[in-house]
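WARN retry 2 of 3 for item q-0093 after timeout on previous attempt; input resubmitted unchanged.
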Amino acid sequence: MPFSSHPSPHPAPDDTRVALSILATIDPVLRDSAVFGLVVGAPRVVALRHDIRAAEGALRRVVVDASGVVEDEVVPLEHACLSCAVREDAVPTLRRLAEDGRWDHVVLALPVAAESLPVVRALAAQTTPGGELERLRLATVLAVADVDTLEHDLLDDDLVAERGVGLTEDDQRAVGEVLAAQLEHADLVVTTGDPVAAATGAGLVDRLRGVGTHRVDGLHALAAADLAGRTHDPVAGERRAHPLGVRGPLPRHPRPAGDRSWSFDQRYARPLHPERVLR
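OK item q-0093 returned
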């Protein structure tokens, strides 16, 4: 089902500002495929892709549009971390792209395994009147995930460092931790793979994504115009990502054949030590 077929709960976007969409994923191939699909045939869309090279203390910035690679530079950073990258390179680059005049939609493709929430929080503060990014507006935060591997990615004990996508040299986050955070915060989850054959993976996506968010199956269903036509609500995004606010939609009923996902909602009037959940 096309993303644009769902009515937006947000006010109509201000067309005088450049739309800014944020893309997060745990897979470099999915990220690059999504970026390519968004810019090809869309001359007014530009993508800014960042890769953190922790060992070098540097960040690689790649800017692409329908015509090809516009910029490809390695930028030294005082600290090769995500927050520093946003502050030192993303903000001034986004401002420059918004002021260029060639594009009316910028897609910020985050480093693989980066969580979108802290980035969006930092950028939202700059898109207010008087901020460095006042010519931009937050449009859509999207996560791209593969339902064929999602059950393993989410529930196994792989570390991002083991997959070569850690953001620092000592990044010990679990792949599932990162993926869950991306799915919970996103306005839109775009899946690849077969949601029928991988019914459990698709079910897990629906249990993690927040109320009022959407899921579309296949990168072919992703269009830049659909992303630009939305307006991201930072408060709702923060609420979805907060442990007390997680209450995603259950999978459609009747339950798809083969879906082994389930939810356990446990409530207590008194404090509960989290170790009791593991027993």
